[in-house]
Amino acid sequence: MHERRLLLRRLGLLPALAGLPLLGSAAWRSGHDSSPEPGAEALPDDVCIVAPPLAWQPGSSLPLLAARPIPAQARCPVCGMFPARQPRWAAQLIFADGRAHFLDSPLSLFLYLQRVERYAPGYHRADVAALYVSDYQAGSWLDARQAFYIAGSALHGPMRGGNLPAVASQAAAQQLVLEVGGQPLRYAELRQALPEALQRLAPHRH
């Protein structure tokens, strides 16, 4: 319990979660006993309580499924980082009801898509209506399905490991490869199978 409270304090969540019956649930699977504490409400296995999807704001001037600015308080549901702090790496996923998750990198987006139900309980892959990644060079939002990704480059993403910087065109991808190395890949290839070196970076420990 002491270790869990230290983790929550580091994430800035302890005050927000004080008194809630979540701390003893299976949501925290980092080597601790996952049995609920006496009187605690049992939760499904592998539930991420760090980053719930954020609702669309009806008063916004943006369409329901349009790419939206990253809220400063948004956390990546895969790793717990703040995507707004490194916007050139960021990604976002929007469900058909307008709720959205913001991710720290395209790599986290592809890891998320492997297990949507884990990171957004109650949602499924079929509920995903829009996917966006930040153009690493221009900083604008790209349709994730149309972007080009560089795997195995010398660039280190927010998690300090190898990553998948995204660019808008094949020409931009080839230029970036000349500068930092790596191999250009498309969305369909990465959805089918992430490179093994990137799979090992999955921070599935919360």
Automatic annotation (TrEMBL):
Superkingdom per UniProt: Bacteria
Xref: Pfam families: NosL
InterPro entries named among the record's database cross-references: N2O_reductase_NosL
PANTHER family: HTH-TYPE TRANSCRIPTIONAL REPRESSOR YCNK (PTHR41247:SF1)
Descriptive protein name: Nitrous oxide reductase accessory protein NosL
